[in-house]
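1st attempt posting a full record on here, be nice pls
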Amino acid sequence: MAYYAWLDENNIVTEVIAGIDETELIEGLDTETWYGNFRGQTCKRTSYNGNIRKNYAGVGFYFDETRDAFIPPKPYDSWVLDEETCQWQAPTPMPTDGKFYIWNEETTSWIEDL
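the predicted structure (as tokens):
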């Protein structure tokens, strides 16, 4: 079984489905092409374990053609994209002292979640 994401005209994921194995051909076409033609939308394969396209696609994710990667929505204006993982990172790492923290965009810092 493989997973596929449909993209709108802005390369935003609109739906993700479980589909047939990516090694199969349908009517002589690879699965991405067949699913895309079937729906009239661009279709890209995605992977739970990140083996392809960096991240498992989710509705609202952006597909970056240059990076060949699914990128989640940016959670905060101050966060920056990690080019290796295509995940958003806070400007300062979250403390690792075993406590729970939430991001405060106003102060651009982590605050303990009591």
